[in-house]
UniProtKB/TrEMBL annotation:
InterPro entries: UPF0047_YjbQ-like, YjbQ-like_sf. Pfam families: YjbQ. This is Secondary thiamine-phosphate synthase enzyme. It comes from the Bacteria. It comes from Pseudonocardia thermophila. Coiled coil: none annotated. SUPFAM superfamilies: YjbQ-like (SSF111038). Belongs to the UPF0047 family.
Length: 139
């Protein structure tokens, strides 16, 4: 029999582009549902945010934001023009940073590498509050 547990967490990202490490909140969710082996899905139901699995704390998160600024400049080139200047780039972001990630769970823990963290990536300064859906599927 397949079982699924799901919850939504609210993340306050503020008014500047940011990378928010969700790994500890994900671990708490997996403990709360008494996860064993299965699959974790992390989903951001927003048109201007994504989920990345990267190293944090050693500058990689800052490097990611710098690369996104180079790749998707916040200027007037975008046809999507509501919101703050350059907001159209935020709507292109999910084509580069997917709005979801799936991670194996083994023994109740996300099977991440030593330096990997699961992060919310948000370049949209117009939306300071985000929701992230965590779903654990056990089989």
């Amino acid at each position: 029999m397949v079982a699924m547990e799901s919850t939504v967490i609210e993340i306050r990202t503020g008014t500047a582009e940011t990378v928010v490490d969700l790994t500890s909140q994900i671990a708490a969710f997996l403990r709360s549902v008494r996860a064993g082996d299965g699959l974790l899905n992390v989903w951001v139901p927003h048109a201007t945010a994504g989920v990345a699995i990267i190293e944090t704390g050693a500058g990689s998160d800052t490097d990611l934001l710098a690369a996104l600024r180079d790749l998707l400049p916040a200027d007037d080139r975008w046809r999507h023009r509501h919101g703050s200047p350059g907001h159209g780039r935020d709507h292109v972001l999910p084509a580069f940073i997917s709005p979801s990630a799936s991670v194996p769970v083994i023994g109740g823990r996300a099977a991440l590498g030593t330096w990997q963290s699961i992060c919310l990536v948000d370049t949209n300064a117009d939306n300071p509050v985000r929701q992230v859906r965590l779903s654990f599927l056990a089989g």
